[in-house]
Amino acid sequence: MKQLNKRKRQNTLIHNIWQLLGYMGHRKRQLSVLIVLMILSAFSEVVSLGTLLPFLSTLSEPQELLSSAQWQPVLEWLQITSPSQLITALSIAFIATIAFTSVIRLVTLKARINLSAAIGSDISAQIYQKTLNQPYQFHLCHNSSDLMQTLVDDTNRLMTFILMPILAVFTESVLAISLIGALVLIDAQIALSAAIVLGGSYTLIYRMRQNLLKQNSKIVTLAGQRKIKAVQEGIGSIRDVIVANSHEFFQSAYQEAELSFKRGQAKNAYIAQSPRFILDGITMGGIALLALMLGRNGDFSQAVPILG
Fold first, then answer.
1. pLDDT attached to residue 24
2. From CA 185, how far away is CA 278, in angstroms rounded?
3. What angle do CA 118, 123, 126 make, to 5 degrees?
4. Residue 246 CA to its chain's centroid (Å)
């Protein structure tokens, strides 16, 4: 029974995601630009990786690259004859590629956020249109605070915690596939190990994150409804409030709902951003362990380019 319910939830989630992706059809131009930027970002990351490896190799063994027959045409064209000239040239190239990659990633991030906002706006406008066109009986049977909560807060959370993460997963997946492909060409065993560890960690953390967000979002929704209700009943019936001298009651109700709402929002923001730091810790720990493995014989010179 539990497996059946779990399968139903998964099917519903997949169906909902496909419905959300359907709204991207209205934003074909923005989506096309984002795809181009994703590919360009992945390419720039691979180029940065390709620049990093010779740079680190040169720092540890500059003479080896100077005497390499493969690089002689390039070195002669650039008129590089000494280790200091080689390190300077590679440093400039590495800094330039890093700067270019950073700019591309920032532009990609902006395009991704703008697309999420546009899709969220489309969904919110469609919900408002459908609600507005409902018969009068529908509005009699539904609380206006619930409808306002759906239009204002739920659509914001949809953009922040669903649309943006989905687009982020697509963007980072293209980048990860490109980098892993480049690493396979350098060292297949290390690339495969990194893909398994980081991929497994990301999948586990992402599932835990989504479950926590789902649970906490229910709390935020209820708190938002109570907040709007307090505003409507307090300000909307201000004459009765003044006559009954019930200012403190509505103030207390609003303050309690607002505190619960803000705490829920803060918790959602924390849950949404924390996986990055966890993965950074796993990555750095993996690099340290890999360094120990590669330097078992006491020679770390060959480990430097690989760790880079």
1. 59
2. 28
3. 125
4. 46
